[in-house]
Design a protein that fits this description.
Structural class: alpha+beta
Distance between the termini: 92 Å
Strand content: 35-45%
Shape: globular
Largest sheet: 6 strands, antiparallel
Number of helices: 3
């Protein structure tokens, strides 16, 4: 009795079962993922399944033939007999299975060789241009604007130049994630993250923006506009959250005196046509007024929630007054060391610091400090050993800049040997002595106070340098890493914003961008 030969049949079935399982898993994964295999993947799957079927049939045929021979009931296989029955069928099926498996292996090899090219055409995502084995399917997400300048390029956005050559803006407001620029054609607020215009208050036809408050209070600021060669005589209160005009007033007579308008708490204070007036910032209702005494004219003012500082020219003399912002009550008055016509600006309300420049060449040309009762404390000459100091517009011979007053120091630019400022200098408001000086290799363009207390200045190379306010030492230098930088005009402003800074070009000299951001 010849024993059954099950080795080849059992092995073939086992191998086919494994291949069948792999193909079934592949197809199942495609169904779950919502996508059937295509191309060579589909061909290989079809050939594997076909080969499995043929192999199983061949194995069954060979088993039947073996069993038939062992029992003596099968056909005779002598030299003259023809092979028939289960034996012949099993043998032919086995040959077919081998052929189908060979074709399946060939197709699998072609699939493996070409799959990389397919992935590259599909835009796969590893460093070599193909998806990694562990990559997971991802959904499509639309790109959104950066929420912080930290995530943006070195110069993430610019606002193109506006207006004609030599058009000059009048000021700006730093509003956290937004900056507002007073341009000749109106007030425009830019999103600090992408430069888009969040809101705007355009100036009326044939009128230009001519004045703006140095800052805002309680979410409201003031602007004014007027016609060509006419008084700056239309006053508006603007809500900074959305640009809504809260109210508008037409001023009589000579209109505003220079840029003499301010907000302190919920009170708007202006010097207009020889009178100081205070109005509600929300309604525009007048709260008090103070007509200038006979022979006196207001020169400059600024205010906070409790105190308004007013500089008046009276004949050839001048004086500084402190008024209650809410009621207009005079708190104190101090004669200034002036004996000729003067220009003046309020640099700080608390502590009280003003800049005065009179016509007499031998007169007062200085920053003057006062205590809370009006007593003089310091005098810092506008020109001295450190060079020509920068002061607010119209005061002195230096570049226009609003000095910083913080931690008992007056901080401003200085022009030494060159005609441009290249030094930052700080003076004590206790004794007027120099506290520190910081030299810059190039021109210093704009000055700003950082939210964390540091002092920032803009260089002509578009770098932003942060200084320790107590010592003047360099804390950080932020220099854009880009080949092309936007042009900087002759009178820029630097405004800190979340994640970076915004530069405003306030004079259009050579089509410089109106504004741009720096990382």
């Amino acid at each position: 009795m010849i024993p059954e030969r099950r080795g080849p049949s059992t092995g073939a079935v086992a191998l086919s079962g494994a291949a069948f399982g792999a193909a079934a898993v592949f197809l199942g994964a495609g169904v779950v993922a919502g996508d059937w295999p295509t191309g060579w993947a589909a061909v290989v799957c079809a050939l594997v399944l076909t080969a499995v079927g043929v192999t199983v049939r061949a194995a069954a045929g060979r088993t039947a033939a073996t069993r038939g021979s062992g029992s003596g009931s099968g056909p005779s296989l002598d030299k003259t007999d023809t092979v028939t029955g289960p034996a012949a069928s099993g043998r032919s099926s086995f040959v077919a299975a081998v052929l189908v498996w060979a074709v399946a292996v060939l197709a699998a090899g072609i699939w493996a060789a070409t799959s990389g090219d397919d992935d590259e055409r599909d835009g796969g995502g590893t460093a070599e241009g193909r998806p990694s084995a562990s990559a997971q399917p991802s959904t499509s997400v639309r790109p959104t604007a950066a929420s912080s300048l930290d995530a943006a390029p070195a110069v993430p956005w610019t606002v193109p130049a506006v207006g004609q050559k030599y058009d000059e803006g009048v000021g700006s407001w730093s509003l956290g994630p937004t900056v507002a620029q007073g341009r000749i054609d109106g007030l425009f607020a830019y999103d600090a993250a992408d430069g888009s215009v969040r809101w705007s208050v355009p100036a009326p036809t044939r009128e230009a923006l001519c004045a703006i408050t140095p800052d805002t209070e309680e979410g409201i600021g003031l602007v004014a506009h007027g016609r060509h060669e006419k008084p700056c005589a239309t006053l508006l209160a603007v809500r900074t959250s959305d640009g809504k005009v809260m109210w508008q007033r037409k001023l009589g007579g000579t209109g505003l005196v220079g840029n003499a308008l301010a907000v302190g708490g919920t009170t708007a204070v202006t010097a207009e046509d020889g009178t100081v007036r205070a109005r509600s910032t929300e309604s525009g209702e007048q709260r008090w007024q103070r007509p200038a005494p006979k022979g006196c004219l207001p020169l400059a003012l600024d205010a906070d929630a409790t105190r308004t500082l007013l500089v008046e020219q009276c004949g050839k003399g001048a004086r500084l007054l402190a008024l209650d912002t809410r009621t207009g009550t005079q708190r104190w008055a101090r004669d200034l060391p002036v004996e000729s016509t003067a220009t003046a600006s309020v640099v700080s309300v608390a502590p009280a610091v003003v800049a005065v420049d009179e016509a007499d060449a031998r007169g007062t040309h200085a920053f003057l400090g006062f205590d809370d009762k009006g007593a003089p404390t310091v005098s810092v000459p506008l020109s001295g050993p450190e060079g020509v100091l920068s002061a607010p517009e119209g005061v002195g011979d230096g570049r226009t800049v609003r000095p910083l007053v913080r931690d008992g120091l007056l901080i401003t630019f200085a022009e030494r040997n060159s005609m441009v400022p290249d030094r930052i200098v700080a003076y004590s408001l206790k004794d007027g002595r120099k506290a520190w000086a910081h030299d810059n290799e190039g021109q210093t363009m704009a000055l700003a106070a950082e939210p964390d207390g540091r002092v920032a200045y803009l260089g002509s190379d578009a770098s932003v340098t942060l200084l320790d306010p107590a010592t003047g030492r360099t804390a950080t230098v932020l220099k854009p890493d880009t080949a092309e930088l936007p042009a900087i005009s002759i009178a820029p402003e630097l405004l800190p914003v979340p994640g970076g800074h915004v530069v405003l070009n306030q004079i259009n000299m050579s089509s410089e961008p109106a504004a741009f951001a720096l990382r």
